[in-house]
Structure formats: C-alpha cells, structure tokens
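Model it.
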Amino acid sequence: MKRTIVSITVLLALLGISLSVEHLLDSDHYNPGFHENPVTTQSHVIFGALFLALALAQFSSRIRSRYPALHRLGGRVAVSAGAVTAAAALVIGFMFPFSGTAEVLVTGPFAGLFGLALLRGMWLARHHRFAEHREWMIRAMALGTSIATQRLIFVPVLIALGGTLEVAYWLSVTSFGVAFVIHCAVAEWWIRATRVHTAADGIPQGDRGAGRSAA
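Modeled.
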C-alpha cells in the first residue's frame, strides 16, 4: 500500500509540474484574469511547481538521513515557495475567479489550509516535534497535488459534456471541490494508518533519526 501511495503522489506531483510548464508556455488561457494579472498568475504557477519539486525530495528518507543540511534547506525553500503559491491562489480566487463566487467559497478555504499546513509543519520541526511535522507536511503535499487530480476530473468530463464555456464554469469549481475532498480524506486516512506512538514523546521510533534532520 505504501508503494502505491508513493507512486500516485509522485505521478500527481509530476503532472502538477507539467501543468505549470504548460500554463507558462500557453498564451491562450481560459481565464482573462490570467492575462490581466501576469505577475500574480505566474507567481502562483512557478512557485507551485517549485514547491512540488522540492516537496517530493523532502519525503525521501535517504536524503533526510544522509544529507540533513540539504533536507533542512530544501524544506525552508519549499515552505517559502508554498506560502507564495497559497497567497497568490487567494488573490486569484478573490480578484479574478473563473467560476465566480462559488470558486472563492471552494478554493479559498483550501488555499488557506494549505498555507496553514506549511507554516504549522515548519513550526513543529523547529520545536523538534517531528511526528506532528510529518503529518502536517503530508497534508500540505496532499493539497498541493490536488490540482493534478482536478485536471484529471475536469478535462475528460468537460470533453464528454460538450466543452461549452457554461459547463466549464460549474465543472471547474466542482472538480476542485471533489479533488480537495479526496486528497484531504486520503491524507488523513494515511496519517492515521501510519501513526505510531511511543510512551516517551509520541515520536515514532523509526522517525527519531530522520526527525532530527527535518526541515
């Protein structure tokens, strides 16, 4: 099961990075606000891709154990990139949402949760609470990769329903909501399925050595 979860996460992260590259290369965007606000849009896309790339490496036990300094540096950069991504997502959602108010109501809370997960994870690592740090970073990664699942839902359903702009409006926000819920649910299930407590301090025995090198 672990191998399956890891494989799916890697594939979704790589798809998310590919979508970011595609967005930067494509000048024909569905949302006019992207053209009118290039700095905000590109910040969201570029830093989002950077977060996904660095976050993948952060979950590598080999890097944590062999290169702790690199792990800490990568973690700080990943959190910073993720924070910019979350802030830009909130600006996009409130200033020029593709699906109007409904998009704000769906993407706003999850963008905020993504930023909270990153900051909470970093705070926990700095206070040597590595088991909890791991859990919050899993939540952040789950939310970060949800954009890929949103596209996997949105594109084929849109094609099947005719691809009209009216359908795209409601389908976009619906697929965002479904993707967020699925990713959050799977993340919480995985956290609880892999959580191990110790009587001393709640840090899994297997995480003690890796925990000291956490970001």
